[in-house]
Design a protein that fits this description.
CATH class: Alpha Beta
Distance between the termini: 37 Å
Number of domains: 1
Number of strands: 7
Radius of gyration: 17 Å
Order of helices and strands: EHEEHEHEHHHEHHE
Strand content: 15-25%
Structural class: alpha/beta
Largest sheet: 7 strands, parallel
CATH topology: Rossmann fold
Shape: globular
Helix content: 40-55%
Number of helices: 8
């Protein structure tokens, strides 16, 4: 049984990803900053409260998972958050908050996981990017968010370069609008049929971590549907 760590497990995307991986026969360790409320009833699910913005805490968490299960085959690093603001409305403090939420939480997990995976010559890291980090027109009014997500994309590039020739790969998922209750409430005039469902993203993430996805390297997946 493969063991995977899923951060942000209590969020809209995290909940769908946890369900998909459990249904597919994985052992799942779900991490969240708050007391995890996700109840799966599945004996292969373990929930852990951890502050991933704290490097020492994140490293200790990964170390405890490795000690307990010996091998971590995949890390799905889903923690993140969004804020609006063009450059005139974005302070250095705003930047720091988004960097911490979107980049540091990913980096603090990726660092020990990548080291572990390189030692084992196997592993998959999945990051969540953002369309505004790829499209300057879309990102000009989301300066802090776009910059923080651009670091996530660059981190995946650097890890893939370091893992060249190894069976270790980093993949970045770049989604358009995800169909969530919050997005429906904030955009009542939009057509959610054009959006991406969390369950669809979860399906693709499981493929990346399965044998079907084994040939993929240096992958950036644009999951846009029709939006």
């Amino acid at each position: 049984m493969k063991t995977v760590i899923i951060t942000g497990a209590g969020g809209n995307l995290g909940t769908a990803v946890v369900k998909k991986f459990l249904d597919s026969g994985y052992r799942v360790i779900g991490a969240d900053a708050h007391v995890p409320s996700l109840k799966t009833g599945n004996p292969n699910f373990e929930s852990v409260q951890v502050d991933l913005s704290n490097e020492s805490e994140a490293k200790a968490f990964v170390g405890s998972c490795i000690s307990k299960y010996k091998t971590i085959e995949a890390g799905l690093l889903l923690v993140g958050g969004f804020t609006m603001g063009d450059i005139g409305n974005t302070s250095a403090d705003d930047l720091k908050k988004q960097f911490t939420l979107n980049f540091e939480t990913a980096y603090n997990m990726a660092r020990p996981l990548f080291t572990h995976m390189m030692e084992n010559n196997f592993g998959r890291l999945i990051f969540v990017g953002a369309r505004p980090a790829l499209d300057s027109i879309a990102g000009k009014n989301m300066i802090a968010y776009s910059l923080s997500k651009s670091l996530v994309l660059k981190l995946a590039e650097l890890l893939n370069a370091a893992a060249k020739g190894k069976n270790v790969a980093a993949t970045v998922f770049v989604a358009s609008t995800i169909d969530t209750p919050q997005n429906r409430a904030s955009m009542p005039d939009a057509n959610p049929d054009n959006w991406v469902k969390a369950s669809q993203i979860a399906e693709l993430m499981e493929i990346i971590c399965s044998e079907k996805g084994s040939p993929l390297r240096e992958t950036v997946l644009k999951v846009y549907n029709n939006s």
